[in-house]
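Example record for the data management plan.
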Amino acid sequence: MNNFSKAEEIFRINSDPTITANKLLEYAKMLEVKINQIQNNLTKKNTTNNISGKVIVKTRNELQDIIKNSAVDANLNYLDVSNITSMRLLFNQTKFNGDISQWDVSNVTDMSGMFFGSKFTGDISQWDVSNVTDMEAMFQNSLFNGDISQWDVSNVFDMRRMFFNSQFNSDISKWDVVNTPDMTSMFYDSKFTGDISNWKKQPA
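Corresponding structural encoding:
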């Protein structure tokens, strides 16, 4: 039976009141599998596989399309995002809350607005953000409250509104922000109450 015939069959049984609930559920699951297969084919259409078997994503736009077509709780660690330098607004206003803990973001320089207004609360504690220079509004209006205490933010120039109106209230007391001149409204209207009295700021 080809894909079109399967679709016709699903439509037929869904319209037949004599079909049992179990049979209907079986066909619904079959349709879900087929949809996932199609989505995976679309995802991999413009990508290639590296030696580790991961799918290489070449551009930010490609990555956004994958996120848009993925389940809210999807594991996206199969993606190699090491070629991407900008993740600006990547999860902006999304409900995505899956696993991206193993992403290689070491070449990213722009994370501004990355999780702006998002539902994401996952683990990104091991990310290498040492080359990021822009974190403006990165977690603004978001639910994120994870552990990012070990992040190397020593090259970040802009932290304006980074946690503006966010739920963030985790430890960042050891951050090196000496090279960050602009922290305007960084914690404005947020839940943050942590101790950052030891931060050494750039001389005026």
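Summary line stored alongside the record: Residues 1-45 form one domain.
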